[in-house]
Amino acid sequence: MKYTPSQLWFMDAKFGIFIHWGIYSLLKRGEWVMHNEKIPISKYEPLKDMFEASLFEPQEWVELFKDAGARYVTFTSKHHDGFCMYDSALTEYKVTNTPLGRDVVGELRDACNDEGLKLFLYYSQLDWHHPDYYPLGRTGQYAGRVEGGDWERYLEYYIGQVRELAVNYKPFGFWLDGMWDKPDADWKLHDLYQMIHSILPNALIGNNHHRKPYPGEDFQIFEQSLPGEEGGVVKNTTYISDLPLETCLTINNSWGYNEQDHQHKSVEKLLEYLVKTAGMNSNLLLNVGPRPDGTIQKEHVTRLIRIGEWLRKYGEAIYRTRGVSVEENYSVTRRDEVQYLMITTKESNVLKVPFKYARLHSLTPLKFELSNSVLYISEWSKEPIEILKLE
Ligand code: FHN
């Protein structure tokens, strides 16, 4: 496949930060709280009048993400609850009508521009709030809405919103989600993708429908699992296309801020994920869910800082590489003639590897010998991942 310059940039970038932030964060129980707790629109809507986010500093977010080694940011402009985090002309249900009163997407775009990070906009095609999202799909049954609605009008609304995002904010790409709610509906994807590409010819479109990519999509998304992996919380397709790939992952088990979720993955686990996604020729999009006041919880900040430290030391094995393979104990990436073998589990001191030659040297202080494609390790380093370089 011949890749466009945007796709090549994306494949080289390797690491991005996902942000799930909206009025749901006020309830501190994740972005699905409206559905999970059967909160009707009449009770959920007033959250918007409480959204002050007095500590929201997009510049600080972006500096942190840059320090973490991320090359791009993907932000929820509208999630399933239908609330818009930008100044949409098509609804009053938006962040500029909250006490915060600021255009979050616009400010984030400016901060990303200042720091040289690209911005992708997440947009939920599923909408629990809009009266024309009808017939309902698999979710949203407890919103307490009047039965009825005009699907054609909803299509106009959502495509119109994506259009205004494209025109007004010019993101580097779109990250669509929620189509799985009504997998058999006509979402007018063809028109949507054509519209985006006619306004922004180089924009990358990805859609988290968990299926084989549709024509017009520029990258393929996997969620909470490595590309092609079966199982997991979401039924991702096992089909891996030759489009650029991206896997998104939560640090704990929640996308939106969840005060009760303390199951934060260790830095070692997160790095293992990064190394494995790179070995699979995929990007990693790692999520944070800021608190209602606009700050990011310290458990996530410290992990991002440590990932950044690691990437500053060993980023040559990740950035601008292409994946070669992922095995039980190691992943391999390559850049032109150079290959990197990254050992992710240190269980066995004897490893069969795909290299014959002794032109292998270690980037981490690891003591080893290579003989007949077998690596004999006499001393592990203290680094979470051992990295050998073959030139
Ligand atoms: O339902 C959403 C979920 O809230 C979150 O946004 C994730 C991110 O990949 N996607 C959906 C589930 O597929």
Task: Please describe the structure with a list of short key phrases separated by commas or semicolons.
9 helices; TIM Barrel; 391 residues; binds ligand FHN; 5-stranded antiparallel beta sheet; 2 domains; 25% helix; alpha/beta; 8-stranded parallel beta sheet
What are the low-pLDDT stretches, counting only 5+ consecutive residues below 50? none
Q: Please give the order of strands in the largest beta sheet.
A: 5-4-3-2-1-8-7-6
Q: Which architecture of the largest domain per CATH?
A: Alpha-Beta Barrel
Helix proportion: 25-40%
- Beta-strand percentage range: 15-25%
Fourth-tier CATH superfamily name of the largest domain? Glycosidases
**Secondary structural class:** alpha/beta
Distance between the termini: 26 Å
SSE topology sketch:
Elements: H1 5-13, E1 15-19, H2 33-36, H3 41-44, H4 58-67, E2 72-78, H5 104-115, E3 118-124, H6 151-169, E4 173-177, H7 189-199, E5 204-208, E6 220-223, E7 245-249, H8 267-279, E8 282-288, H9 298-314, E9 322-326, E10 330-335, E11 338-343, E12 350-352, E13 360-362, E14 367-371, E15 374-379, E16 386-390
Helix pairs in contact: 4-5, 4-9, 6-7
Residues 31-32, 177, 208, 223, 234, 248, 255 line the site of ligand FHN.
Q: Can you walk me through this structure?
A:
- The protein is an alpha/beta fold.
- It folds into two domains: 5-320, Glycosidases (TIM Barrel, Alpha-Beta Barrel), CATH 3.20.20.80; 325-390.
- It has nine helices and 16 strands.
- The strands form three sheets. Strands 5-4-3-2-1-8-7-6 form an eight-stranded parallel sheet, sandwiched between helices.
- A hairpin with a 3-residue loop joins β9 (322-326) and β10 (330-335).
- Bound molecules: ligand FHN.
- Residues 31-32, 177, 208, 223, 234, 248, 255 line the site of ligand FHN.
